[in-house]
Write a structure and sequence with these properties.
- The complex is a heterodimer of chains A (about 110) and B (about 110).
- Chain A is mostly beta strands.
- Chain A is built from no helices and eleven strands.
- In chain A, the strands form two sheets. In chain A, strands 2, 4, 5, 6, 9, 10 and 11 form a seven-stranded mixed sheet that branches.
- In chain A, strand 4 and strand 5 form a beta hairpin.
- Chain B is mostly beta strands.
- Chain B is built from no helices and eleven strands.
- In chain B, the strands form two sheets. In chain B, strands 2, 4, 5, 9, 10 and 11 form a six-stranded mixed sheet that branches. A five-stranded antiparallel sheet of chain B has the order 1-3-8-7-6, with no helix packed on it.
- Classes of the chains: A mainly beta (about 110), B mainly beta (about 110).
- Chains A and B meet through strand 4, strand 5, strand 9 and strand 10 of A and strand 4, strand 5, strand 9 and strand 10 of B.
Chain lengths: ~110, ~110
């Protein structure tokens, strides 16, 4: 069964460093999403991406964040200058139709020291 | 206040009992979904109910939606220890783009 994959599973970085989180969505999906979940808290929407451009973004997704689909398979989230408060689980998701069931990856745990 | 608030925040029941979780939201929605998350792992879609539907069933799951009250409930019947997880409601917003807002979640613990 096809699934969304994410790498790395755990990323440790120093404050101020840039990180790139990688996702491979399900191959026939057209809509891609990033969410974050601070430990024990709710899942927060960051951004949605369709047709090679951002569809929606939240107030969390400021100038420090960017997304890219560099080729036909990968979908990346870049944080330019990490802050302590960026420490969280980051989940990628994808779906076919834009609304409705989303398929989530296993997440990347980002720890900013 | 946040979109998609669930209550209770935590629920502990015995195996075989029913579990009911509630969700409220604030803005106009396209649909409402329920997801399950096992400890720290990815979310798994359980069921979707469209804004023009009032009730939906899937196996041991029953979801209701009341758009006039902007609320939904998820009922899990005959719970099992394996149902222990966090449950989140999520709403697809009626915006021009694609935005899904998750609630704070209910942590369900089913005792064997």
């Amino acid at each position: 069964e096809p699934e969304v994959t994410q790498t790395p599973s755990h990323q440790v970085t120093q404050m101020g460093q840039e990180v790139i989180l990688r996702c491979v969505p399900i191959s026939n999906h057209l809509y891609f999403y990033w969410y974050r979940q601070i430990l024990g808290q709710k899942v927060e929407f960051l951004v949605s991406f369709y047709n090679n451009e951002i569809s929606e973004k939240s107030e969390i997704f400021d100038d420090q964040f960017s997304v890219e689909r560099p080729d036909g398979s990968n979908f990346t989230l870049k944080i330019r200058s990490t802050k302590l408060e960026d420490s969280a689980m980051y989940f990628c998701a994808s779906n076919v139709a834009g609304r409705g069931e989303q398929f989530f990856g296993p997440g990347t745990r980002l720890t900013v020291l | 206040s946040q979109q998609g608030e669930e209550d209770p925040q935590a629920l502990s029941i015995q195996e075989g009992e029913n579990a009911t979780m509630n969700c409220s939201y604030k803005t106009s929605i396209n649909n409402l979904q329920w997801y399950r998350q096992n400890s720290g792992r990815g979310l798994v879609h359980l069921i979707l109910i469209r804004s023009n539907e009032r009730e939906k069933h899937s196996g041991r799951l029953r979801v209701t939606l009341d758009t006039s009250k902007k609320s939904s409930s998820l009922l899990i019947t005959a719970s099992r220890a394996a149902d222990t997880a966090s449950y989140f409601c999520a709403t697809d917003q009626n915006t021009g783009g694609f935005k899904t807002i998750f609630g704070a979640g209910t942590r369900l613990f089913v005792k064997a």
